[in-house]
Amino acid sequence: MSELRWHPLLRQWVAVAANRQDRPQMPQNWCPFDPGSGRVPDDYDVYLYPNDFPAFSEEYPPFSPETDLFHATGARGTQDVVLYSPDHNLQPSQLTVEQWLKVIGLWTRRSIELFAISDVQYVQVFENTGVAIGVTMPHPHGQIYGFPFLPPFVETELRSASDYEKEKKRCIYCHILTHELEAGSRVVSENGSFVAFLPFFGRFPTEMQICARRHFQKLADMTEDEKNDLASLMRTVRRKYDNLYGFPMPLMMMVRQSPAKGDHPYFHFHIDFLPIQRSQKKLKYLAGIESGCGTFLNDTRAEEQAAILRGTPG
Ligand SMILES: [Zn+2]
Ligand SMILES: [Zn+2]
User: Fold this and answer.
1) What is the pLDDT of residues 119-136, one digit of tens each?
2) Least buried of 60, 168, 186, 245, by fewest C-beta within 10 Å?
3) Distance of CA 84 to the CA centre of its chain
4) Of the ligands numbered here, which is closest to the C-alpha atom of 29?
């Protein structure tokens, strides 16, 4: 069981998941995600695996957003693991376009299910990759959280986009994308439906965004052509990242869609890639200024990194 505690100074929820400390050490030569493990089907392409030690679960008491001091509430939500492939040793950058298409299909189907659950306010599809990020399981996988509240960065981003729409009468993401396409210096790769660029304001080294050309809000809004184009660009981006320094790039990938409840026409679907490798030999650590102040020091310039990535095989 885990619970949510309100941080009254930073005004955000902290998931206190006592049970996660009890996670057993996995046997060295056994992977629960492998066909034949008894935990997954013997034959699968992509697979949704319920997290064995979730911070958020439908079994937990309901979330009630009371923010009194010393108040804890239920962490009712969902937490799944998305297996990208039955092949234990495959890197995400080695997935074919067809396989990415299956992964995107699974993200979409699960998002639609979670949007319909009354306890779920936000569906976060994401991936942590690399030992440097703290991922111990090499099997290619991502995760999906169904949050019972809007996480703080999501809330801030929604407010920014909503305010921009009200003040300037246009979508902030469309505006940024138009500018990036005109400037060109930070664009890495593009196709008919999506553009990959390094944001001017990126916080992480070689941070990248895949932004939809068309203004839409969520995975379920994508046309078949858009799904194909996203799968294709996903493969290109992941290959470029892993070819940049000649080894798999440790990174976090965040698929940003509109909240599960309500209408959010000002929001615009995109995917953020947050790598932590700042050079071939050096990692970026989130130290005092980043973790303690929330201000990021980025050791790379988007324009220079974009130029290098454009010339990197994808
Ligand atoms: Zn495995
Ligand atoms: Zn837009």
Assistant:
1) 999 999 999 999 888 887
2) 168
3) 14
4) 1
